[in-house]
């Protein structure tokens, strides 16, 4: 049976984070607040947990899952290399609403879907999410909703859609406007904005000081 923890209450927050960490380590799913919308998350290195996440969302592997990290330095162990443009974007926008796509380290044993050897990374600007990530390490996270339904802006909305498929719901209050993160692909010679969200194309271009294409 899933459990909801009110993270506005200190003891509930502590209990909820402990329960969520235990669930993630056991290969189960959790819902966490982020600075965009609520996310459904799992251990990024557990293929079965990621499959469960996709099944809960009624989504296939053709739409791969991104990875949230709890610190800048975590990225170094997840990707083939961190090019200068990636460092510039990380320093400018992390933690925050910008996701970066890079070639992942070939040694990693994970299955996030059909990624073509890449991974989408982000460090969220939310204390509950950050604390959980620093406890359990990188998590595969997608918006907490069934495919085709609106992203959840509250823990209650997430539970209405995902129900008992999730072990722990961490309620961090309303997420605000459900604006998605901006996604920048740095796998080629020229940066490409795959999705313009909370961070504008102009802001990305100003930080990089170079041509930025859109898809």
From TrEMBL:
EC id: 2.7.7.87
GO molecular function: ATP binding; double-stranded RNA binding; L-threonylcarbamoyladenylate synthase; tRNA binding
Localization: Cytoplasm
Gene3D superfamilies: DHBP synthase
GO cellular component, one term: cytoplasm
UniProt-listed Pfam families: Sua5_yciO_yrdC
Keyword Transmembrane helix: no
A Gene Ontology BP annotation from the UniProt entry: regulation of translational fidelity
InterPro entries per UniProt: DHBP_synth_RibB-like_a/b_dom (IPR017945), Sua5-like_dom (IPR006070), TC-AMP_synthase_SUA5 (IPR050156)
Catalysed reactions, semicolon-separated: L-threonine + hydrogencarbonate + ATP = L-threonylcarbamoyladenylate + diphosphate + H2O
Keywords: ATP-binding, Cytoplasm, Nucleotide-binding, Nucleotidyltransferase, Transferase, tRNA processing
Domain YrdC-like: residue ranges: 14-199
Main location as per UniProt: cytoplasm
PANTHER family per the UniProt record, alphabetical: SUA5, THREONYLCARBAMOYL-AMP SYNTHASE
Family: Belongs to the SUA5 family.
Name this polypeptide is given: L-threonylcarbamoyladenylate synthase
């Amino acid at each position: 049976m899933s459990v909801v923890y009110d993270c506005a209450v200190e003891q509930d927050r502590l209990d909820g984070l402990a329960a969520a960490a235990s669930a993630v380590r056991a290969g189960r799913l959790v819902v966490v607040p982020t600075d965009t919308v609520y996310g459904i998350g799992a251990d990024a290195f557990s293929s079965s947990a990621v499959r469960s996440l996709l099944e809960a969302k009624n989504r296939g592997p053709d739409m791969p899952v991104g990875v949230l990290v709890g610190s800048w330095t975590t990225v170094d162990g997840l990707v083939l290399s961190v090019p200068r443009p990636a460092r510039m974007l990380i320093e400018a926008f992390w933690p925050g609403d910008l996701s970066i796509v890079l070639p992942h380290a070939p040694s990693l044993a994970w299955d996030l879907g059909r990624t073509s050897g890449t991974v989408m990374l982000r460090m969220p600007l939310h204390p509950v999410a950050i604390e959980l990530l620093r406890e359990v390490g990188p998590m595969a996270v997608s918006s907490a909703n069934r495919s085709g339904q609106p992203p959840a802006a509250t823990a209650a909305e997430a539970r209405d859609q995902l129900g008992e498929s999730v072990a722990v719901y961490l309620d961090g209050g309303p997420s605000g406007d459900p604006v998605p993160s901006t996604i920048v692909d740095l796998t080629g010679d020229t940066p490409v904005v795959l999705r313009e969200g909370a961070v504008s194309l102009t802001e990305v271009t100003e930080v990089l000081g170079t041509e930025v294409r859109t898809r």
